[in-house]
Amino acid sequence: MRPVLETEHLRVVFKGSSGQKKIVAVDDLSLRVNQGEVVGFIGPNGAGKTTTIKVLMGFIFPTSGKAKVLGYEAGSKMAKSRTGYLPEVALYYPFMTAEEILRLYGRLQGIGKKELSELIPRLISRAGLSGFEQLRLKNFSRGMLQRVGLAQAIMGDPDLLVLDEVTSGLDPVGRRDLRNILKDFRSRGKTVFFSSHELSEVAKLCDRVILIDEGRVIQEKSMQEILEMEGKQGSLEDYFVEVVGHKVT
Amino acid sequence: MEAAVGFKELTIGWASLLEAIRRKDIYVMLILSGIIIAVTGIFNAFDVPELRKFMMDVSLSIINVFTVIIAVLVSARQLPYELEHRTLYPMLAKPVGRFQFLMGKFVGTMGLSSAALFMFLAVASVVFVGFGTPLGGMFFQYMYLRWVSLFLICSMTLCLSLVLTHAANVTISLLLCMGASMFTRTVIIVHDSLSPWQQKLITAAYWIFPHLDLFDVSKRVIHGWLPAPSWTLAVMTLYALIYTGIFLGLGHLRFRRLPL
Fold first, then answer.
1. Domains within chain A, CATH numbers bracketed
2. Which spans in chain A are helix H?
3. Which residue ranges does the record assign to the ABC transporter domain (chain A) (predicted)?
């Protein structure tokens, strides 16, 4: 099957300030996500999840190793044109309204004016923001901003969704809406790669789990395998704690 | 393809412009300067030529200072704000290159600084004409050169914002913009009294630092000089564009591999 997302021996080292030692955020990380898969990227705090995702989006550059997205170099315009991304901390221009910010991202995505005027109300409705489209984002709660983030990520119907801490700030209704969006993406053969600390949500959403710790892939298992594991590991959380060896915060 | 690239830059620039308009702090400067210019216009009522020159001097000095302050403050906050508030992640996740993003910010700061300059000049023109001081060709050359200097100021401040802290950038940029004429005069005065290596150093600095004082022809407007030949304006435009290119190029070199 065609890999949509691929890293080979990825290593990211952050230089410490003078006198401080270097920090290895990602160390020899190799992973592969195929077309049509919904993959959960989990690990304890500081495991290197966000750093890996930032490399995939071209925000930071690997010290060594390779990262490819949709067959293109990670961070290239070609890769980004078919990728939807939700950042870990969703911050959007507070002086704009939801409609204005989606128009801005739509223009940057290369979507035409006419198409945008039809698309934006649909996205606002799908993200559960109907009635709030003319409200400035400075008045939005964290959960509402996450919905705006989700709306901009799925804009233009990307082939790949990369979502960092996707459930952060979402209420139960928001999580259900998110599940519906991701199920719709999966049913249309799209690929979703997401990180989350909400393991119950990960278990509901994904086909496969990649577990990392200290910048390395510890294990990769399909959800089926995890659920079928006998004995003490009755849930994804038990599996996580068993493998990583410490509690999720 | 080129048109699409320009469109994305304009879109990013439009966002910067919208932010400045909605933040409202720029209005304080515009209203304040408008009041000062209008008040100085009262001196014209005395019908004394020297007072008229004084009025023009004060008005044009205010325009010079406030346009520089607006251009520097707006340009200096663009990239640090984006980095600090992480608002650039969703933008750069779209098919937008980092150079396009930088250019978009430059377009936005230029748009805002130009709008402020032309508003100041509109107020000054109304006051001058209203009190019977005709606007000669030199005044329009002054307007044009002030506008051209904004390219240099905005690009320089944007570039410095990638290597300096916000406070350091604002201080250094304002010093470079407002102290340019003082620096030039000082170099000319002290040059011969320096040792040979000091002379080389100060000469190098003289040629490296942009001479923003060259873009200020307000004194010629005040004293009723005839307009300069058009080739002079062409050379000045080229001078500003070369520096703008250098600053945007240096900014891009820094920004293209900057970990975000």
1. 1-81+195-248 (3.40.50.300)
2. 49-57, 77-81, 98-109, 113-126, 142-154, 172-187, 199-205, 223-228, 236-244
3. 5-239
Q: Does B2 reside within a domain?
A: no
The domain in which residue B59 lies consists of 7-257
ipTM: 0.87
Domain count, chain B: 1
Q: Is residue B192 part of a domain?
A: yes
Instruction: Write out residues 7-66 of B within 8 Å (CB-CB) of A.
Output: 7-8, 11-12, 14-15, 18-19, 22-23
Paired tokens of B76: 């200096």
- State which amino acid sits at residue A167: T
* Of the partner residues B4, B19, B89, the one whose CB lies closest to the CB of residue A93: B19
Tens of pLDDT, residues A207-235 = 899 999 888 998 888 877 777 765 545 57
Interface contact B253, partner A, CB < 8 A: no
B232 occurs within a structural domain: yes
The whole-model pTM stands at 0.89
How many Å apart are CA B32 and CA B36, to the nearest integer? 6
